[in-house]
Amino acid sequence: MRIGFFDSGIGGITVLHQALRFLPNEDYLFYADTSHVPYGEKPKEEVREYILDAADFIAKQGVKALVIACNTATSIAAAELRQKYDFPIIGIEPAVKPAVQTWEQKRKKVLVLATSLTLREEKFNHLVKSLEHHDIVDSLPLPGLVSLAENFQFNKENVIPYLKEQLSSLDVNQYGTVVLGCTHFPFFTNHLKRLFPEDVDFISGSIGTAKNVRRILEARNQLEDGTGDIVYYQSGVRAKDQDTLAKYNRLLAMLDEL
User: Where's the active site on this chain (predicted)?
Assistant: First the structure.
């Protein structure tokens, strides 16, 4: 059986990329809700319905686990989905905890970049408040990066002006770690690095999520000897045309180079 991956759009490819590293012999189903992307600026209840519909569709395809490769979707619906299905539901959340742990060494603040909806959610705010040194955590919504990614606009001419404008109110020199709290954001890591001091670390929850998937499947004796095959769905329709498949392959290749 395949491992299901779900995101509002292409951002979940950054998590799938890590899963392919840690579980190269599994087969995968990747579902992008391209009809409703972006989630991060929409009303919570509307997004919840999109997530539940997508999860129902994925479950009917037959998966042994579902990775919610979207920080916003995890915060809104992961708990509800775990009650509904008997296969593991693995979510992702901004990697704030490991970022805050760098305080002892760096003595610099942490900046969390995410969508507006993720940053408003109680789950995120509870996570931050539960941590020692939580007062060193700042946050900034960058919804424009989601739109840029979904339109495959990764060139510096489009990205850098947007980032400079959004970061203009911050003193970037006060940060030691930047948390990429949306799965779309790792595509822009190199652009972000140009705007922060060289010693700033950029982290996301993708690696930890992929390792968690492997740990859970090992514990359930559900590791399989597949081929790394991936089938793609876009809002319930399987993507078969060569142009679309080539785009997904190009995204994975981009991540190999980061």
Answer: 70 (proton donor/acceptor), 182 (proton donor/acceptor)
